[in-house]
Amino acid sequence: MKKSIIYTCTGDSGMTSLVGGKRVAKNDIRIEAYGSVDELNSQIGLLASQPDISDAHRQLLAVTQNKLFNLGAYLATDMLNGEPAVLRGLDVADIEAIERAIDEIDAALPPLNNFVLPGGCQSAAVAHVCRTACRQSERRILSLAQTATIDPVALKYINRLSDFMFVFARLCNIKNGAAEIFWNKDCQYQ
C-alpha cells in the first residue's frame, strides 16, 4: 500500500472540501463548526493523557473522542446525493450515558454554593478548558443550525458534554486534594 501524501496544496488559496467534494472557504461556518469539535477532541486527548485520570475515566474519554469524531464527520457533510447528512454513531443513548456519568460524579461532590473559577490541579484546569471548548463548539454548531438542518442530538450532546466537564473538573480537584477556587466578586489586587 502506498503511503498517502500529507500535503495536497489544494487548500493553499483558503478553500477546502467538505465530505462529498463541495469546495468552501476555510472560514465557512460549517468548517468552523466541525473545526471547533476537532479542537475540543484534541483538548479531551490532553485531558485523557493526565497521569491522575483513572482507567475508567480514560475509557469514557476515549469513547467521547470517538463520538466527537462521528459528530465532526456529520458536520463536515453538507449534502450527499441531494439529501441532508444523517448523524451516525451518536444518538440519544450517548446523551443518556453522559447524563449517568454526570449523576455518578455529582453524587460524590460536595454541594456547590458559589461559582467555581477554572483551575486547581492540572487535570481540573484541562477539564475546564474542555468545558469552554464544548461551549465554543455549541455556539458554532448553533450558528450552522441557523443556515442548515442540524440533528438536535448534536446540540444536546455537546451541551451535556460541557456539563460533564464541569463536574469532572470538580472531581479532579477533590481526588487530588486541590482546593476549588471560588469566585470572589470583591477581590482586590494586593
Summarize the model shown.
This protein has 190 residues and is mainly alpha-helical. The protein has five helices and six strands, in the order E-E-H-H-E-E-H-E-H-H-E.
Model description:
The chain has about 190 residues and is mostly helical. The chain has one domain: Up-down Bundle (Hypothetical Protein Ta1238, Chain: A). The protein is built from five helices and six strands, in the order ββααββαβααβ. Strands 1-2 form a two-stranded antiparallel sheet. It has a two-stranded antiparallel sheet with strand order 3-4. Strand 3 and strand 4 form a beta hairpin. Helix 1 packs antiparallel against helix 4 and helix 3 runs parallel beside helix 5. The longest helix is centred in the last third of the chain and has 24 residues. The termini are far apart. The mean pLDDT is about 90.
